Amino acid sequence: MTSRRVCVGVFDSGFGGLTVLKALLELSPDSDYIYFGDTARLPYGSKSAATVAKYALEATQYLERNGAQLLVIACNTATALALDNITAASSVPVVGVVEPGAACAALVSKTRRVAVIGTEATVASHAYLKALASRGVEAEEKACPLLVPLIEEGWIEHPVTEQVARIYLDEVFSDRESAGSADVLVLGCTHYPLIRPLLRRVAPPRVKIVDSAESTAQVVSDQLRAKPPGAASEQERRRVSRQTFFATDSVAKFQHLGARFLGRPIDQVHHVDLRE
Amino acid sequence: MTSRRVCVGVFDSGFGGLTVLKALLELSPDSDYIYFGDTARLPYGSKSAATVAKYALEATQYLERNGAQLLVIACNTATALALDNITAASSVPVVGVVEPGAACAALVSKTRRVAVIGTEATVASHAYLKALASRGVEAEEKACPLLVPLIEEGWIEHPVTEQVARIYLDEVFSDRESAGSADVLVLGCTHYPLIRPLLRRVAPPRVKIVDSAESTAQVVSDQLRAKPPGAASEQERRRVSRQTFFATDSVAKFQHLGARFLGRPIDQVHHVDLRE
Questions:
Q1: Contact A150 B150 (CB under 8 A)
Q2: Distance between CA B201 and CA B199 in Å, rounded?
Q3: How far is the C-alpha of B157 from the C-alpha of B150, rounded, in Å?
Q4: Quick check: A47 contacting B, CB < 8 Å?
Q5: ipTM of the complex model
Q6: Which of A41, A133, A184, B151 sits in a 20 to 30 Å window from B183, CA-based?
Q7: What pTM was computed for the model?
Q8: CB-based burial, A118-145: b 16+ in 10 Å, e otherwise
Q9: B250 touches chain A (CB under 8 A)
Q10: pLDDT tens, residue by residue, A71-82
Q11: Strands B208-211 and A243-247
Q12: Where are the alpha helices (DSSP H) in A7-112?
């Protein structure tokens, strides 16, 4: 019997989800991936739940129509605001980034108190707070709306980015000397892994960093291992894994900026107009 | 004969255009205004020309259907990338922000060299460079993508915003001692008037600041005076000017953030879904 490789659909409002794809390519290099970046309507992080849910549904249904057998919502805002809607509308399994990040943080925290940084919309949804509370862990959430524009400006190792991160984290870890204070920092936005070394310097040394992108890739990889797609044909086994990229705005910009997040060049991007 | 007041349609991707409306309300308080903020798809400044043109056309046609007799494109990016498309598709006069800003700068500059700051898309379009060149003035354009997020974060008088402005302006005015260097700074984004005092401190003292929002309001006001709408009825004269606000994302957020730009509370905002 000829069997296809599993095709994983990865969705984000823009480029951040490429950090999840990067981690997936390391853990499950044999799957095929189709990535959808809704770059014409980014960012989602400052928008309302209704708008984000509408956009996310259009994008994930596009991925499903194009062959995705498993959907990864590689965007904290879309996961926080629309995971239930997406799961209800999809006929394939859906994995978001909040549960894997919260599960890993709960595993790592000794003080049972965790700090979460993310976009305005992610924080306002309290998705992490709820996911952590169900595991008996308290959460302190902090919106950091300037970090995404700073990362997209390419100011990765820059004194301004460090100063901004310090202002935000000082509010989160103001009780940094207290014994019962947060001992984990969750990167609740898929852009933040790009400034992980900077955040490592700025956060108190006792605080462990949990990256939701990495945790999600681990969960997806476990699911792929648990349900192998059956014996692949000789032809299937021989060909390399395929990655296909779709974006709703400029493909040139996606290639240029996306390569920074993926850590490798992106050869081709297909433009999609969701209204066509 | 009963005559209606002139209804002016003001369009922006979000909140910045409210600085133009603020100036219009001062110069032409007797007109009616309908404002459209395409907040579900903002920002336009980092997006491609094709995407911006499509969005801007949908918004301005909405304003025309809702009674606008004159359209003000109160967004530098939309003006720079889509003014021709909008003008071609409209049956009413259209005024953008680039020409009035460039005309004022050309009038003020003695060195015939002007610096323009704006979004990535505005700068990439070279709309100001062309508008100034046609007036015999050289332009130095600089994209400042972090200023909009900093202003929207409310960091108006903040050391980080000052540091970022200094980094950007130092590049523009690196030849600040030279006699032939720019003596005018054009605020080529309708967000920037909010940090005008800060930019005043950071720019070299000899540099005059020209605000495109103000210049545009002056041009519109002149047009309204040149073509009075005819004698108004007694009833029309008695009622106060009406301002109606439409937004494509959260109306609560529009009221909250918009008040900062307009400098007065916004009582009511109507939600619009352009796909309905």
A1: no
A2: 5
A3: 10
A4: yes
A5: 0.89
A6: B151
A7: 0.91
A8: bbbbbbbbebbbebbeeeebebbbbbbb
A9: yes
A10: 999 999 999 999
A11: unpaired
A12: 18-27, 49-65, 76-89, 98-108
